[in-house]
Amino acid sequence: MAQRKRSWARDAFWMTLSVVLMIIIWDLCVRIFKIPSHLLPGPIEVYKSGAKNIVPIVAHSGWTILAVLAGFIIAVAVAVPLAIVIVLSPTAERMLYPPMVAIQSIPKIALAPLFVVWFGFGVVPKVAVAFLICFFPIVVDTIVGLRSIDPALIQLARSMGATPRKIFLKLRLPGALPSLFGGLKVASALAVVGALTGEFIGSDSGLGYLLISASGMLNTALLFAVLVVLSVLATAFFYLIEVLERVLIPWHVSQRAHAH
Amino acid sequence: MNARLDIADAVDAANPVAADRAFIDIAGAAKTFVGQDGGAVVALEGVDLKIRRGEFVSIVGPSGCGKSTLLMLVSGLVEPTGGTIRIAGAPVTGPYTDLGFVFQTDLLLDWRSVLGNILLQCDMRGIDARKHETRAQELVNQVGLKGFESKRPFELSGGMRQRVAICRALLLDPPMLLMDEPFGALDALTREQMQIDLQTMWQRSQKTVMFVTHSISEAVFLSDRVIVMTPRPGKIRAILDVDLPRPRDLHIHETPGFSKIVHEIRVMFQDMGVIHR
User: How many domains does chain B have?
Assistant: First the structure.
């Protein structure tokens, strides 16, 4: 435990150091090469613009966070049960898999204009794009996880008189969690892409909207400020899932202390 | 454990018919699978074998000879396509659960502690695990894993993991053990230690054991009888009695009696073309 704490502190140290170094290099580049600020503003200018626009940034962030979380949560709520049904029933697999793959083959971004027609300019089309884009990886990874059980383990359980229900709940489901979390991590990044796409296409709110309007006004400093906020939000979302993973599957290989 | 054994003996003594009859009675057992190309694959053909209560029987044979299939048939997990299996007089139809099964891989659950893995028996059978915690701890102590009971499987070595798997099989003190190459994945030294410990456990509990292995010397070291199987389709080629005194230690490998039986089995495999001269 003590060792793990120390490695957390060390990770934080290196992360901070690398961020500080990046900012310094950025600042030096802007100063030395005299890059015009409408192309690449320096970090101080970006900070000032962010501080000045803090109220709209926070307000628009709220909408983006809402769209990302709603899309993601609905995707999990639909994808995981669907994956379970597909694994348990060959008929369901034959019926559901082909249309799922067909939908997956459409670039989700291409559907955003349609969603605007269907759902208007509110938060719904953004949620819909975020949902669609993170749905597929969660289904696929959950299926892989549920199928990865060692057949011998099922035989062992049956020799103990276990019912199929017990085998599913106590062996298959926990065994699928590592793979499920793999899907959730991929989906977490995609959900942000989905929400932003929705905001680009047709919206009057959200960080995507703010980006488009800042770009329209050639306000590069604000653009960068929004980008920084976006990256912080996406990173926080990713780590939220990592923390959840650490809590739920502390036993998995990916969660053990690194052996170096 | 001895007390339980006495009860089992008393029951048999009171019922001489049951004591006389083979504990595991395999008659004409056959198994044909549908192969990947749709054709029939005969895994086992006409296997007759009677195993006494408390006997240690090993089954040796080349890969694919149906050794594991035979265990599957006895456990009732796989249905035979011919013949019958009886355990303690009753025909096996469907999974037979009054046994302990040990596979080549330990099949420990990463998310459970050592004790939790042993108590999986209770969870799968829907019985109260708390009542068996003391017994699980006893078993852990017996196999030399005291102090490791709350460790996760990934913190253990291969040998320790397989010991936990054996404890899991023994938790409810079943009258018989099916072991499918349980030491196959272990290094040579660990393997010898496991053989000695398994013998000790078996002598203490007098369980009926069916033990599948690739290793001729392992089979001879452990068994009362060694069943030699032919390549696919698997049939019994020979049954050899191992009349070596027990408890056996590793130096028995160097005795003429031991070498003679190992030699005999090896010659059989050479004759069948399994081992080339």
Answer: 2
Do both B151 and B187 map to the same domain?
A: no
Quote the CA–CA distance of B156 and B161 in Å, as a whole number: 6
Instruction: Mark yes or no for CB contact A174/B124 under 8 Å.
Output: no
| Residue A153 touches partner B, C-beta closer than 8 Å | yes
From chain A, the residues in CB contact with B105 under 8 A are: 150, 152
Chain B neighbours among A 163-182 (CB < 8 Å)? 166, 170-171, 174-175
Is there a contact between A86 and A93 (Cβ–Cβ < 8 Å)?
A: yes
Range of the domain at A4: 1-35
Instruction: Kindly provide the ipTM of the predicted complex, given to two decimals.
Output: 0.88
Task: Choose between A104 and A79: higher pLDDT.
Answer: A79
Domain that holds residue B146: 109-173
Residues A111, A73: one domain?
yes
Sheet holding B225-229, edge to edge: B99-102, B176-180, B208-213, B56-60, B225-229, B236-241
Q: Do residue B124 and residue A150 have CB atoms under 8 angstroms apart? A: no
Q: What is the pLDDT of residue A255?
A: 67
Over residues B141-165, the pLDDT tens digits come to: 999 999 999 999 999 999 999 999 9
Asked if residue B179 is part of any domain, the answer here is yes
